[in-house]
Amino acid sequence: MDKVMRLSSEKGVVIFSKSSCCLSYAVQVLFQDLGVSPKIHEIDKDPECREMEKALMRLGCSKPVPAVFIGGKLVGSTKEVMSMHLSSSLVPLVKPYIC
């Protein structure tokens, strides 16, 4: 859990992902299209992958990836991010982190 919390605060927008996950890719592209350059952590390339998945689930993720943190706080996964985007509440949240 400590590693996930530390990594989630590395940058304004942090995405925990898996290299083969198409939903993770879609979320990454959304943020890039909004002008945000998120920090991506591909947990399947980390030796502590299983522990990180468990920590993300304990934090409240319904699925371990993608897990999106904005300002060090868990926003959620694809469903939550896309819902926020469609309701126009995502852009104001990421505005401080637009390049």
How would you portray this structure in words?
With 99 residues, the chain is of the alpha+beta class. Helix content is 44%, strand content 17%. The protein is built from 5 helices and 4 strands. The protein has a 4-stranded mixed beta sheet. Helix 2 links the parallel strand 1 (13-17) and strand 2. The model has no long low-confidence stretch (mean pLDDT 94).
How many E strands?
Answer: 4
The number of distinct helices, counting runs of at least 4 residues, comes to 5
Helix content class:
40-55%
Gyration radius, to the nearest Å? Answer: 12 Å
Distance between the termini: 29 Å
Order of helices and strands: HEHEHEEHH
The secondary structure category is alpha+beta
Instruction: Give, in spatial order, the strands making up the sheet with the most strands.
Output: 2-1-3-4
β-strand amount = 15-25%
Shape: globular
The profile of the biggest β sheet is: 4 strands, mixed
Family: Belongs to the glutaredoxin family. CC-type subfamily.
Organism: Brassica cretica
Domain Glutaredoxin: 13-75
Keywords: Cytoplasm, Redox-active center
